[in-house]
C-alpha cells in the first residue's frame, strides 16, 4: 500500500508565527530527508518524507499578508486548499536568503576554451591538497574498484538496496560483488516520462567498455503518461504507440547481458536504477566521482565538454540521446581511472565552470538588451558577490532546483533558472518543468505598477478601516439615564472590548462598542439583537458603509474556511480561570486537540475568551451545541464557530495598536487613485489565484506545496 505524506503541526493561535529559519527547516527536511542527514523541523512533523514526490515553493513577489486579507474573497482556491497558514516574521532581504544573488567570481587567467590545459589553468600543487577530489581519493592512481560506491554511499545517495523497504518487488541483476580492477565497465542511461506511478522508463541504453551500443530500446510505460517530458527525453506519444516492450522485458535482457562482475557506470545512476526497478551492487556514479565541495555536483553536459572535449545534449536536438549520455559517462569514468585524481584535479573544473557561467551571463546580458526588457542598468553593473542562501544546502542532491520568474532571479548557477515576461508564460513553463524537478521555486508578480508605496499604504488603510468596522457594533436605543455598567457587562460576555463610547448625536442614546476579536462582534449581533439590555429592547448592528455591504459574505467565507472548520470560539470566561482550569473544564469534550487562550500582547494578561480546536469538524459542531448555555464558575458561556485564525488575530491586534502611529494624510490623498486601479487589481489577483489552482492540480500526489507572501521586507 502506498504511504501518503502529510504534515502536522501543533502551532495554533498566537503561536501561528514562524521565522525564516523555521521555514527553511521545513523545506530542507522535505527536500533532503534523513538520507542526507536533514533533521525533522522543530515546529512541525512530516510523515513519510521518503515518499515525497517533490517540493514546490510559489513566491508571490512583494505581496504580503495585507494582500491576502484585502483580496480574501478573490483568493478562493488558495483558501480552499491550503489549510496550514502562518505569519512569517519580517526579515531583511528574504528572497536573497531563499535563492541567493548573482556571483562575481573573476578567476585570474580565465581559459580561452573549456578544454584548455595550458599552464595558466593548472592549479599549483600546493593548492591541490585542498581539492575535494584529492581529499576524497588521494593523489595516487588506483584501480576501478577504488571508485565504486560502497554500500553506505549507495544508501546515502538513494540507490536501490537489497532488502530496503522502498525496493520491494525490485529485480536484482544477480551480479556479485567479486569485482576486480579488470572487471568490465558498462555505461547505462535511461529516459523517463511522468505517469500516475511516478517516473517510468521510456528508453534504455547500454554501452560496453569500447562504447559500442548493446541496447537502445523504447519501453512502454505501465501507467497512463501524464507528461512525456519531450524537451528532455525526446520521447513523444507517437513514438510509443507501436511499442510492445515492457519494463519486465528490459529487466530480463539486462540480467542476461551483464556478466557476474559487471560494473555499471552512469551520471546520477540511482535515478536510472530506481526507474528500472533494478538492484546492482557495483556502480560508479560520475556525478559523485568528479567530487565538488559541499556535496555539489557537475552536470554531465559540462563534464563531457570540459574533460572529454565533447558536445552532448545539444539544444538543436529534440531531447537527450541516452546512448550518447551513457557513452559520455563511461568515457568520463575511464578518463578518471586512467589519468588518476591528480590529473583530474589539475583541470581545475571549478574555474572552468565559472568561466562558462560568466560567458552565459554575458550572452544573457546581450540578449536581454536586444529584447529591451528593462534590465540594462542592472546588467551593466558587475554581479554582486555570492552570499550564502537556502539553496546552497540542496546541492548535496546533485540536482539543480528549478527557478521560474520574471525578476532576473538567479545568476549564481544554483538553479535551472528561466526568465519569462508574464505570469501566464511562467505558468506554462511551470506546468512543463515542475514535474521534472524535485525542488521548484515559481515566482509570480502583480507587476511593478501595483507595488508602489502609496498604493500599498492605501491598501493598508482600506483593510484597517474595514476590519475596524467589522469589529464595531452599534447598540440602542437606550433610556436617557441607562446604566453603562450593565451594558458593558452584557456585551463583555461576548468577548474582550477594545473601547465603549456613547453616541450623543441621536435622539436617544446609542452605544458604540469596538471588540478585539471578530467572533465577539458577530456573537453580539447574533445573540443580543432584539434582547433587553439595561431596561431597553435594543437593536444591534454594524456600521453601514459601502465597504461593509459584503460583510455577511465575508463572515460566511471566514466561517467556512478550512482553517476554521474544526475551531470554535468560547466567550464569557472569568479572568481568574487559568489555562489549566480550562483544560480540566473542557476535558469532557470529545476529540479536543488544542486550547488557545488569547493574551494581551503588551500586558500578557489573558482575555475572557478562548478558542478550542478539535481533531474532527463534527466534534466541533457537537461541542458548540454542548457549550452554549454552560455555566462555568458562575459565568454563562457563549460560543460560535471561529472566524479569525491565529495569524489574523495577531494582525488585527497589531493593527489596533499601531493605527495611531500612521499619519492619516498619507493615505487619503491617494485613495482616489487607488480606487481607479483596485478593480483591475482584483482581476489580477483572481487570475493569480487561478494560476495557483492550475499549477496545484498538475502536481503529483505527495508533493509539498508552499505559497509565500514575502512582502517588501
TrEMBL record:
Q: Does the keyword Ribonucleoprotein apply?
A: no
Q: Which GO terms describe its cellular component?
A: nucleus
Please indicate which superkingdom the organism of origin belongs to: Eukaryota
InterPro entries given in the database record: Nucleotide-bd_a/b_plait_sf, RBD_domain_sf, REX1-like_exo, REXO1/3/4-like, Ribonucl_H, RNaseH-like_sf, RNaseH_sf, RRM_dom
Q: Which Gene Ontology molecular-function terms are recorded? A: exonuclease activity; RNA binding
Annotated SUPFAM superfamilies: Ribonuclease H-like (SSF53098), RNA-binding domain, RBD (SSF54928)
Annotated protein name in UniProt? REXO5 exonuclease
Q: Which organism is it from?
A: Picathartes gymnocephalus
Q: What is the lineage of its organism?
A: Eukaryota, Metazoa, Chordata, Craniata, Vertebrata
Amino acid at each position: 500500500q502506498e504511504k501518503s505524506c502529510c504534515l502536522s503541526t501543533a502551532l495554533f493561535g498566537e503561536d501561528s508565527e514562524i521565522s525564516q529559519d523555521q521555514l527553511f527547516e521545513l523545506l530542507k527536511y522535505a527536500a533532503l530527508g534523513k538520507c542526507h542527514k536533514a533533521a525533522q523541523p522543530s515546529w512541525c512533523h512530516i510523515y513519510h518524507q521518503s515518499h515525497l514526490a517533490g517540493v514546490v515553493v510559489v513566491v508571490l513577489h512583494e505581496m504580503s499578508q495585507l494582500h491576502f486579507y484585502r483580496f480574501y474573497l478573490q483568493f478562493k482556491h488558495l483558501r480552499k486548499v491550503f489549510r496550514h497558514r502562518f505569519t512569517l516574521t519580517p526579515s531583511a532581504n528574504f528572497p536573497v536568503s531563499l535563492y541567493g544573488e548573482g556571483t562575481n567570481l573573476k578567476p585570474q587567467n580565465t581559459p580561452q576554451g573549456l578544454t584548455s590545459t595550458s599552464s595558466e589553468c593548472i592549479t599549483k600543487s600546493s593548492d591541490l591538497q585542498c581539492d575535494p577530489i584529492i581529499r576524497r581519493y588521494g593523489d595516487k592512481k588506483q584501480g576501478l574498484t577504488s571508485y565504486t560506491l560502497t554500500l553506505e554511499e549507495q544508501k546515502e545517495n538513494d540507490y536501490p538496496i537489497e532488502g530496503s523497504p522502498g525496493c520491494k518487488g525490485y529485480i536484482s541483476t544477480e551480479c556479485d560483488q567479486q569485482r576486480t580492477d579488470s572487471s568490465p565497465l558498462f555505461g547505462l542511461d535511461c529516459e523517463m516520462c511522468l505517469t500516475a506511478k511516478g517516473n517510468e522508463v521510456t528508453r534504455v541504453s547500454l554501452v560496453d567498455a569500447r562504447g559500442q551500443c548493446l541496447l537502445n530500446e523504447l519501453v512502454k510505460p505501465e501507467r497512463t503518461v501524464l507528461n512525456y517530458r519531450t524537451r528532455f527525453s525526446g520521447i513523444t506519444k507517437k513514438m510509443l504507440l507501436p511499442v510492445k516492450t515492457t519494463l519486465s522485458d528490459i529487466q530480463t535482457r539486462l540480467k542476461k547481458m551483464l556478466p557476474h562482475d559487471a560494473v555499471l557506470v552512469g551520471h546520477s545512476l540511482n535515478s536510472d536504477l530506481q526507474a528500472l526497478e533494478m538492484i546492482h551492487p557495483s556502480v560508479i556514479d560520475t556525478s559523485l566521482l568528479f567530487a565538488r565541495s559541499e556535496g555539489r555536483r557537475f552536470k554531465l553536459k559540462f563534464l563531457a565538454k570540459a574533460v572529454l572535449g565533447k558536445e552532448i545534449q545539444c539544444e538543436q536536438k529534440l531531447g537527450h540521446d541516452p546512448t550518447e549520455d551513457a557513452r559520455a559517462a563511461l568515457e568520463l569514468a575511464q578518463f578518471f581511472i586512467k589519468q588518476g585524481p591528480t590529473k583530474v584535479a589539475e583541470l581545475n573544473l571549478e574555474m572552468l565552470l565559472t568561466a562558462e557561467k560568466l560567458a552565459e551571463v554575458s550572452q544573457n546580458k546581450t540578449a536581454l538588451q536586444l529584447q529591451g526588457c528593462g534590465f540594462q542598468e542592472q546588467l551593466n553593473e558587475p554581479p554582486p558577490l555570492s552570499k550564502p542562501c537556502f539553496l546552497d544546502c540542496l546541492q548535496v542532491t546533485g540536482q539543480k532546483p528549478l527557478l521560474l520568474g520574471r525578476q532576473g532571479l538567479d545568476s549564481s548557477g544554483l538553479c535551472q533558472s528561466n526568465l519569462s515576461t508574464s505570469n501566464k508564460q511562467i505558468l506554462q513553463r511551470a506546468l512543463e518543468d515542475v514535474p521534472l524537478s524535485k525542488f521548484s521555486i515559481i515566482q509570480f508578480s502583480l507587476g511593478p505598477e501595483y507595488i508602489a508605496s502609496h498604493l500599498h499604504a492605501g491598501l493598508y488603510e482600506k483593510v484597517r478601516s474595514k476590519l475596524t468596522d467589522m469589529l464595531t457594533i452599534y447598540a440602542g436605543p437606550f433610556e436617557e439615564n441607562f446604566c453603562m455598567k450593565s451594558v458593558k457587562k452584557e456585551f463583555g460576555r461576548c468577548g474582550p472590548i477594545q473601547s465603549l463610547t456613547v453616541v450623543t448625536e441621536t435622539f436617544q442614546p446609542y452605544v458604540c462598542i469596538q471588540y478585539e476579536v471578530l467572533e465577539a462582534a458577530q456573537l453580539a449581533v447574533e445573540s443580543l439583537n432584539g434582547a433587553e439590555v439595561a431596561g431597553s429592547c435594543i437593536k444591534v448592528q454594524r456600521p453601514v458603509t459601502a465597504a461593509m455591504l459584503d460583510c455577511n459574505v465575508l463572515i460566511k467565507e471566514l466561517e467556512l474556511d478550512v482553517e476554521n472548520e474544526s475551531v470554535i470560539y468560547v466567550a464569557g470566561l472569568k479572568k481568574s480561570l487559568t489555562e489549566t482550569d480550562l483544560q480540566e473544564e473542557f476535558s469532557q469534550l470529545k476529540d479536543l486537540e488544542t486550547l488557545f487562550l488569547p493574551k494581551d500582547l503588551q500586558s500578557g494578561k489573558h482575555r475572557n475568551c478562548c478558542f478550542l480546536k478539535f481533531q474532527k469538524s463534527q466534534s466541533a459542531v457537537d461541542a458548540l451545541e454542548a457549550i452554549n448555555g454552560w455555566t462555568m464558575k458562575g459565568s454563562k458561556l457563549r460560543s460560535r464557530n471561529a472566524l479569525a485564525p491565529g495569524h489574523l488575530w495577531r494582525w488585527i491586534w497589531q493593527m489596533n495598536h499601531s493605527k495611531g502611529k500612521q499619519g492619516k494624510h498619507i493615505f487619503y490623498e491617494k485613495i482616489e487613485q487607488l480606487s481607479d486601479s483596485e478593480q483591475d487589481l482584483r482581476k489580477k489577483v483572481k487570475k493569480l489565484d487561478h494560476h495557483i489552482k492550475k499549477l496545484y492540480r498538475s502536481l503529483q500526489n505527495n508533493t509539498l506545496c508552499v505559497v509565500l507572501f514575502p512582502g517588501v521586507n
